[in-house]
Amino acid sequence: MKIALLVGTFPTLSVSFILNQIKGLLDDGHEVDIYAIDGRPEDVSKVHPIVKEYKLLDRTYYPPERPQNDGWRWLKLLGLLLVNLDKNPLVLLQLIDKTRFGKEAKYQRLLYKAIPFLNRKSYDIIHCQFGIFGIMALAFRDIGIINGKILTTFRGYDISKYLQKRGDRVYDRLFEQGDFFLTNCDYFRQRAIQIGGDENKIRVLGSGIDCHKFAFTPRYFPADGRVRIVSIGRLIEKKGIEYGIRAIAQLAQVYPNLEYNIIGDGLLKEDFSNLIAELGVGHIVNLLGWKQQEELVKILDKSHILIAPSVTAADGNQDAPVNTLKEAMAMGLPVIGTLHGGIPELIENGISGFLVPERDPDAIAQNVSYLIEHPELWQSMGQAGRTLVEQKYDMYKLNQELLEIYQQLLNSNLPQPQFSTQSVEAGSSVFITTV
Fold this sequence. Notes:
The protein is α/β, with parallel strands linked by helices. It has 16 helices and 13 strands. The chain has two domains: 2-208 and 397-429, Rossmann fold, CATH 3.40.50.2000; 211-392, Glycogen Phosphorylase B (Rossmann fold, 3-Layer(aba) Sandwich).
């Protein structure tokens, strides 16, 4: 099969779930092109090993950088069109029709993002990783610069934050004309159905991990008494790291020999640094920044408990069962998560860990304290977590399931969508590509 993957910024350490799918497709002999709609990350000093091993940058296409000045944007765009005259770029001019594509046409955003698709027209599957790229793929298919079955995966912010910003009707056209849909948890599948998706065309396919790379180790109370706790995620509101810090600050008064390592980076790093100083726990809480997979495994291997304190952000952003939580469970760590998004589908309360309300540092502290006082539970909880991850989130099983979905989609007798030449609703024409 020839497959186009539409993603955001690529490559980044936070998209291991997509990298695992790409690995599976390439291993099975399929042709994969990656379209990084939001361009390259600013820092490429640390990338996932799969990126280098499979030379994924050679398969990745980026849109040209779009100048901020309106005049320069048009001049550069004219040059791009002239350079690509042999690829019939005049069809792209449809993308500046403001009656169809609204602000995206006015500011030429769609046109710039369409440039990499010239001369790469036909695919068996166009897999859009996030709903916003499904909308974009429909626009590109409408004007004829890309062809293929459009499969859209909803993963988190696109079915939470984006809806709060753009309204529940934003995916109406995508649901009508898209060929099939996936969600990474049942929580988001139900949300997609609530806003108009056909339940017969929406299936749950979790994000997988390579369990072989996260060796299970039973956890025991450390001989030196230093209990090491860890959280992993971008330093943004949705990840709830603030409440992990506040919980540890409470516990430090009773257990001064704790260590809390936070792996990740983001907009709230300075805020968290200030909070750590304010609470007087700089000797316990460490902001470690992003880590490559090998570094992450080493830190998890030395840790005893993981906290995943995700919350619903003010802008509506929510989490699915995140891969870093699965990785910790695969390695045998008992975990504490929140009653949030898709996380309860991953953590079995009282079996592989504990679930607590959102934004409740007291509840986090109480459950961490309980685990510290009952280390005899660590082994059984860790084993339960490993078993669940192997059963539900093994990437090799899930990649095979994805291939079966692709094949079923190609072989299906479902009627082809009837493409409309009428104006697109304003909500459907706006693409938010910054999370």
